[in-house]
Amino acid sequence: MPDLPEVPPEANVIIVTAQRQAQSLQEVPLAVTAFDAETLQAQQIENASDLQLTLPNVSFTKGNFTGSSFTIRGIGDLCVGVSCDSATGIALNSAPLFNTRLFETEYFDLERIEVLRGPQGTLFGRNATSGVVNIVTAKPDLNAFGGSAQFEYGNFDSIRAQAMLNVPIGDTLGARVAGFFLKRDGFTENLFNGDDIDGREQFAIRGSLRWEPGPDTTLDLMAYYFEEDDDRLRIQKQLCQRDPTGVLGCLNNRRDFDQLNANATFTGTLGSEEFLQLNGLPPGFGLNSLYGPDGYANFNEPNDVRQVRTQFTPEYYADELQLQAHLEQSFGDIALSVTGTYQESSVDSAQDYNLGINDPAFYAPALAQLSTFANPAAVGPATAAYFQPIVDAIIPNGPGGELCTSDTRLDNRGAFEGFAVCSPAGQQFDRSAQEDRAWSVEAIVSSDFDGPFNFLLGGIYADLNTRNNSYFVNAFAIDYITGVLGSFNSLSAGLPPSYLATSFFHNNTLDYQLESWGIFGEVYFDITDRLKFTGGLRYNDDSKSITARSTLASFLNPYSNDGDPFTSPFVGLYDADPGIPGNQLSQDRSVSFNEITGRAVLDFQITPDNLVYASYSRGYKSGGINPPLQPIFNVPESFGPETIDAFEIGTKNTFANGALQLNATAFYYKYKDLQLSRIIARTSVNDTIDADIYGLELESIIRPSPNWLINMNFSYLKAEVAGDQFFSNPRDPGGGDENAVIVKDITNGALCAVTGQAPGGPDGFVNFVNSELNAGNVPGLSAPATAPLQGTTEFPADGGIASSGAFSICEVLQGYAASPAAGAFGGVEVLSPGVEVNLRGNTLPQAPTIKASAGVQYTAEFGDGYNLVPRFDVALTGEQFGNVFNGRVNRIAPFVQANAQVQLNSEDGWFVRGFIQNIFDSNSTTGLYVTDASSGLFTNIFTLDPRRYGVAVGASF
User: Fold this and answer.
1) Which among 425, 432, 662, 764 could disulfide-bond with 360, CB atoms 3.0 to 4.6 Å apart, if both were Cys?
2) Residues 456-473 pLDDT 10s
3) Residue 883 CB contacts under 8 Å (≥ 6 apart), including other chains
4) pTM: predicted TM-score of the whole model, two decimal places
């Protein structure tokens, strides 16, 4: 057999700083993958979403609230909330970033990207329990003037441009400027008006200075600015197995191309004829009947992930400023490194909440009734004065005209203060907005002694301030309900005409402050010339404080008050913090956490080309503060830190004169108090669970000749809930109990479950209580002329719900359950938000069982310095779940992504490239989000981009 040709030694060598020192990737005793600039371009890795395709045990998905989750070995951002820390540390030139928008931008002018898998308990210890993504920017070259530029055009009228200019200034100073611009049409067709949405328009610019006044001193300065302003969709598609009963909104078995039953929503319950009757109000004001059709009954949901029907054009704006200074100073065998980083970032996004259009004719009878009550000739001037402000605000041109919805404003003013958006069908949309400011400083002292002992010692301080994080949900029906209920309440109490503020759901963090510091160190001891020990410790200290509140129809506000609703004379009736005596206008909480983490590693250099290692590391991520809920549920005010004990063995090998590089890693994690989010009362609440995780990773690079390059990766992952962990499933509050009754609370849209031991007891009990409500036997509620509430009903057989369902009032059910009347039904229990089920053995979200990828490229050499380089890449991501409750409805199917390109290069530095991404045009789902009970339990999905193709030209000098 002939010998394999020798590959140039530098062909496979990538220098990384995964251990805060420059080392060859193959010498680092931990699981790390690095992509240099050439690899990023060859594999068409343009952003974080592309990055996941070639990495073992790594997945990435966008989130519901302008965020994202970069999951490594089953551990990602399962915690949702302002006070949550990211499990995957994002670093810029090894310095931590906070709430960065880098996952939305395109990569340009980078030296490399390093992805460290596993907890980084020492050197990157700021809560990096899953790993670290370290983005290393290209630095100025002091020795040569140079530059590059490329222009790309593709389908969707996509234009992408990048450029870089490097300028030496004298012998000791250099400057580098680089930037990119991207503009393309939307990937999604809006059948409502024929427009394309989900487009992009963004740019970024980075300027760098490097000063080397002497051989021992290097100072790097960097400034970066990014901005995006377009119609990006946060959510690609909304799916639902429609619930004909209206109790749940969406069922529990499938994700269909259908719209929810809006009778299950907050507006469907409080705006119903039945709710009004029980409160002694004219049922003619009802927008719907709980037992009749809803506004989406005739809506046609497009059966295509890339098609929607919405009257609201998405709005998306994000920007980020980064400033960084880095000093390297050598004192012989001792080196000092100091890094300071400053960040400002913001994001503001709005889109159709239901990605659908409510039938405006559905509202006509109620709006006619409202107009009658606003007519002085019909009801008298005194009564009309309470309803005319509603007409003026939401139907200014009468019942047949446009319907107006409160705009989203940080000062909480809406339609009743003159700030509204109007359309023929009435809008429903949400908005997510946040502003952050952060800074950090880190200093590291390290040694480079000739002997067997070396060390590293460092410290870091970081400060993050989040200002006015807001999440809004606005809808015409909400404005209508807050106006009508407010007017009737103020009229009956003899108060000035008022509505119930706020006239939209507003979960508002007024201020969040994080103060974090740590001291860390490592020692490196050469036991022999081939056996090395690394030991590290870190002390972490995190303090968090938050001021927040959640409002929706929470207190009366006079229509005459056109200022901030919180200046209402009745705002004292609102209590943001029931945990403190008296009524509070905000909830103020503070928590602190500290932990000692670290690692121990033994690595053995079998030969210069073969390394084996074994390690133990302990990771930590600080806890946080749960936001205030509205309505109130019994949930913890805070959640604790999570810790991980990680055991890993690995080997890194180069064989056959460099023709084969093969790395393998096996790991086992014992996770305690893993932070996990679920939606309760329209708000993300975080709990903790325990988990066991283990897996295997293989990475290889094959160079059978200098002209061929083949890379293949494979990973297996098992990530499951450990021990008995009990939680209620929001999709099935009955917990699979055939004897239970799932109850939609008509006062707030929430769910509860009634359980009991006697067969049929819960059904009989709910029917009895509803008859008491219908008869007016419940204090505070009226006896309606007709019986508005019906008895229990069964869900469809294919809905994945074993329990029966009903509309009722959970608080009333709880009262009767504690009374002797419950004994007639064998005793019952009312559980809010539902029956808890055991999650033991369930798979963690965003944890694909297998991942495999392969890429092959060939360099064909021609005369005169020309070469042609075709390349093909394919990646398989196996089955995963978008929700810890698993089940068919939460399953994310395996998907395959394939890319190809061919590039012609010249000796003079110019190139021409043709490319195609997502060759099979797969609508690959990467993640999902289940909304809360008062929104109808629909599922938002997030997908990869459709097929893209185009050509690019570029040159460098």
Assistant:
1) 425
2) 999 999 999 998 899 999
3) 845, 890, 928, 930
4) 0.93
